[in-house]
Design goal:
449 residues, alpha+beta, 16 helices, 10% strand, binds protoporphyrin IX containing FE
Length: 449
Amino acid sequence: MIPPKPTSRPNTISLWRYMQLFRKDILSAQPERLYGAWMAEFKTPFFRSYLANDPELVRQILNERPKDFPKSDRIGEGLRPLLGNSVFLTNGATWEHQRRIIDPAFEKGRLSHSLPAMWDAGQAMVARVTRMIGTGQEIEIEEITSHAAADVIFRTLFSIPIENDIASAVFHEFRRYQRAQPILNLAAFVPLPGWMPRFHRADTKRAAKRIRSLITDLTQKRMQAINDGIAPDDLATRIMTTPDLETGETFSVDEMVDQVAIFFLAGHETSASALAWALYLCATHPDWQTAIAEEAKDLNTPKDVKRLITSRDVFRETLRLYPPVPMMVRETTLPETLRKRAIPKAAQLVISPWHLHRHTRLWENPDAFDPGRWKMPESKPSIRDAYMPFSSGPRVCPGAGFAMAEGPLLLSMLLHDVAVSPVPGKTPEPVAHLTVRAKDGIWLKAKPR
Ligand code: HEM
């Protein structure tokens, strides 16, 4: 069974029709031929956008010459009221300074400090789901994974569960903000200025302000606790006490508030999307579900996450088919010649994990769910060249290791106690919102295992 994929539009349509489709959903607005293309141009009357879908080209943009292809300012336009000057939006020296402080907190050795908090969030999720399903019930799983991923972020960052008053208020405000602000990363790709979501609408601005004031409160209290020598050893403390080794400076409260906003947004939306799709794929592929449940019998402590080999392969394959960040946008700073095409300065370059991960010339059976491919030597070139759910190069997601511990851990913890199956007639339709979500949610039948 091939998992759901958006129906592509015909190869040739008018710009007007493209715009209408794009507005509804960026994934189904694209023609089928992009799945086999190396490069494509999106012609619009206002500016030029190009899809870079050739691994060699993507390497040039992300790994070899990242400074020549910075993030486009357009991306920030919608998100700045919420994210301020966060590492997700900055470029140049400011960005380098921020990464020098943030990266050490996410290093492998340090990551193990976050595992117990992830474990607690996993147990809370299992308890919630078990209560909810009784002896068996249909549930909307995205709602559950969003709650769980938000819980993971608050517990790992600030040592507080989602039930905490401030954590719960931030979570609910974020949900409101998301509804008013559907597209995370794609503003630069939108062909007409008139289409841009009403980025600075009064209600969006108000929601951003409320979120930032709640986060400021948490951050100020943490700074005080650090100064008093009573702060817990969690991600927030580690980031706020790490100096930039080049300048010796640490983050001020204001700078940290920007980073907390992006950790929360980038960290919980993405993980929630991936976990929800992983559970759907397990529901529709019972053999893999059983294999994960069997493997999970040996899951006794947070450190056992490294033994979750099957769960990790299922999670990786989920990220291939449903990369939570489906597309990324960069901008040319000079006139370029890319794949023999002349590209003007200030053109938008779209890198699409969505298309690369399903590239018909780079993957065997690209649309099939086959976690077994992760063990096959033949898959190595596709994995090396055409798999980047966390991006690549210096701007790679700093939370990649964190997410690859969290995802398999929560997946295994849930499937250890709960069995899921699909709901007939409710096949989820993938669409790109803030991340890749299902148009009407992901519905599953769940019962105690
Ligand atoms: C499955 C989960 C996740 C996925 C698929 C994911 C994916 C990505 C991708 C593709 C980017 C690059 C975006 C771009 O360049 O336009 C990114 C950036 C980022 N992610 Fe993640 N992410 C995940 C989880 C996390 C977590 C758990 C955190 C933090 C706790 C996090 C923090 C960030 C930050 C701060 C950036 C900005 C980095 C920069 O621009 O230098 N992410 N993520």
